[in-house]
Amino acid sequence: MPINIPEHLPARELLKEEKIFVMDEGRATTQDIRPLNILILNLMPEKERTELQLLRLLGNTPLQVNVSFLNTATYESKNVSKNHLESFYTTFEHVKNRRYDGLIITGAPIEHLEFEDVVYWDELKQIMDWSKTNVTSVLHICWGAQAALYHHYGIDKYELPKKLSGVFSHQLTDPTVELARGFNDIFHAPHSRYTSVSIEDIEQDSRLQLLAVSEDAGAFIILSNDGKQIMVTGHLEYDACTLGEEYERDLKKGIDIDVPANYFPDDDPKREPLNTWRSHTHLLFSNWLNYYVYQETPFEWE
């Protein structure tokens, strides 16, 4: 959140040089405050788990947030009860005439498909196009990030030789960017995917900034210059146990899968993993809500 300090305090200019959010007294006394309206397009199969992970993060800020859940009309999830969807979710047809302060588009375990072969691709494109004028900022996660890069910027995904699964070290390219406020220069984050996107393609697009990158996991945090599109290729929202449960699930399916890298202590699946990314997860969501949603969204949508 911003700080309001006397206009001529010597520390003021130094703070501004360090990109600390300093608000002038005029704005502080006239700023209207209301709850933020956040829409979550939940494409994950285990919807209730994803709901808990995301709500835990959205609820850990000083801001009041109203959350609504969206599911696809062109595909019905098989891993959640119809009663749950009918009770807590709606479809795009019922929200397309509304405006939202923020939108989260989750990942989906369908990266082996070409985007055009995804059953709900046309519906998702419609939602992404709608978001450009009806949403202040959109946070895309994993496959959702790849879908956004492809649809908005023409950057396609490519298949990896094997599944990228584990917790990897990442480095910031610019710690003064507001989305990374409070991040360590080096931090950890989990990934779980079969595809990736080209760092070179991202760096060559003048509309995008590559904010965090990993030597092992590639491009991680990408944002548009206007802050309206934020793409995170990994799963900072994951609980400590999630990668391990995915690993056990793949083994039961007979998939030839490696032990998630840098995840289990001593790479021993019998040992309980530790969450080494939690603090940066909360920072990312808090920074997104504050700098890219709350400080930018209009008090009244026209």
TrEMBL record:
Q: Where is the active site?
A: 142, 235, 237
Pathway(s) served: Amino-acid biosynthesis; L-methionine biosynthesis via de novo pathway; O-acetyl-L-homoserine from L-homoserine: step 1/1
One MF term in the entry's GO annotations: homoserine O-succinyltransferase activity
InterPro entries in UniProt: Class_I_gatase-like, HST_MetA, MetA_family
CDD domains (alphabetical)? GATase1_HTS
What are the protein's UniProt keywords? Answer: Acyltransferase, Amino-acid biosynthesis, Cytoplasm, Methionine biosynthesis, Transferase
Chief place of localization: cytoplasm
Its subcellular locations are: Cytoplasm
Q: Which chemical reaction does it catalyze? A: L-homoserine + acetyl-CoA = O-acetyl-L-homoserine + CoA
- For whether the record's keyword set contains Acyltransferase, the answer is yes
Q: Which domain of life is it from?
A: Bacteria
Site note Important for substrate specificity, residues = 192
Which major enzyme category is it? transferase
- Its Enzyme Commission number(s) read 2.3.1.31
The residues that hold substrate are 163, 192, 249
Matching entries from SUPFAM superfamilies are given as: Class I glutamine amidotransferase-like (SSF52317)
In this chain, the site described as Important for acyl-CoA specificity is at 111
Family, according to the entry, reads as follows:
Belongs to the MetA family.
Tell me the function of this protein. Answer: Transfers an acetyl group from acetyl-CoA to L-homoserine, forming acetyl-L-homoserine.
Q: Which HAMAP family match?
A: MetA_acyltransf
What is this protein called in UniProt? Homoserine O-acetyltransferase
